[in-house]
Specification:
The chain is α/β, with parallel strands linked by helices. It has 12 helices and 12 strands. Strand 7 (154-158), helix 4 and strand 8 (182-186) form a beta-alpha-beta unit.
Length: 335
């Protein structure tokens, strides 16, 4: 949006994003502690609503709140996940409440569709939102492949750290690789495993960076040995493209992934990684140990990954559809 000349006011938690015209910092919603963040969002939306032409929202809970506020500019909800199906991977939601929470989320989706225009990140989301625009969940791909330097032993995981995203296997991989490679985790940890992640970091089993803005995390990850995507076979992940695989490829990093349909499709087509079956940790360690001894293969796979991303996963191309939809929706205000 910035490259296209849009004036962007970002309402989001830290870290500060200096590339936008204005970043209004709010408190972060974590686990069940969400009310203060919601209040911050509502207060600032009301403050800026007459200064903007369009509201672009990524979180269903915020879109639902804003559905009940009159007098707002045109609104777009950018659908990036199946929140109802992800409830089982939200450790802060008690198991007995999973079913009613899913039903409540589905109700919120129906409410949001009455007030918001929609953009879908996956074709599979059209089952829930028929006839809505799909803009693939792609990533910015640099023209040149980031270089790999022989001897770089960083094993990267970027994203939310949770039981459903492979935390136990990530820990076992780090333990088994200690002394030969270093596992780096970049992202927030769910509250039920946070103390375990902190302990593993303190004991130098792995390196946990905590939350890092995604562009900074990807820039730091460039040149790493391998990227990991160890999602469980949960409904929310089963039919979605793992965004991190696309981002690893864009950075010229080959990938090890669990056998989810979209992940397998990406890795098979790109020939730039491995699909593993249980036992996940042992399978992953064997691949990494072999790659540590073969820098030429790592460099070759990285170049193939980057080439595939440039040709198939480049946001620089998909953004044209995205921006056209924003422009069309914003103009409706004056009709």
């Amino acid at each position: 949006m910035l490259d296209a000349g849009y004036q962007v006011t970002l309402i989001a938690p830290e870290p500060l994003q200096t590339q936008v015209q204005q970043h209004v910092v709010i408190r972060r919603a974590t686990g069940r502690r969400r009310l203060s963040s919601w209040f911050d969002v509502l207060r600032n939306v009301m403050k800026y609503r007459r200064r903007v032409d369009l509201l672009l929202v990524h979180d269903l809970e915020l879109a639902a709140l804003l559905s009940f506020i009159p007098g707002l500019p045109q609104r777009i909800f950018d659908v990036h996940e199946d929140l109802a199906q992800s409830v089982t991977d939200r450790s802060w939601i008690p198991a007995p409440l999973s079913l009613p929470t899913r039903k409540f989320v589905q109700l919120l989706e129906k409410i949001v569709t009455l007030r918001f225009a929609l953009i879908l990140a996956e074709n599979s989301y059209q089952e829930r939102f028929p006839d809505q625009l799909v803009v693939p969940n792609s990533t910015r791909v640099p023209l040149g492949c980031p270089a790999f330097v022989a001897g770089d032993n960083r094993v990267i995981y970027i994203g939310r750290i949770s039981a459903g995203r492979g935390w136990r296997d990530l820990l076992r991989i780090a333990e088994q690789l200690k002394g030969r490679a270093v596992v780096h985790l970049i992202g927030e940890a769910d509250h039920d495993i946070r103390s375990d992640v902190e302990l593993a970091h303190q004991e130098e089993v792995l390196h946990w960076h905590g939350y890092v803005a995604n562009p900074d995390a990807l820039h730091w990850a460039e040149g790493s040995l391998i990227g990991l995507s160890l999602l469980d076979d949960l409904a929310n992940y089963r039919h979605s493209m793992p965004t991190k695989i696309a981002e690893y490829f864009a950075c010229g990093i080959p990938v090890i992934s669990t056998s989810l349909p979209k992940a397998k499709e990406l890795i098979d087509q790109s020939e730039s990684g491995w699909i593993i079956e249980p036992p996940l940790a042992e399978s992953t360690v064997r691949i990494i140990d072999a790659l540590l001894l073969d820098s030429r293969k790592r460099e070759y796979l990285g170049m193939k990954a980057h080439k595939f991303a440039l040709e198939n996963l480049d946001w620089n191309q998909d953004s044209k559809i995205f921006l056209a939809f924003l422009q069309t929706t914003a103009v409706k205000k004056s009709r």
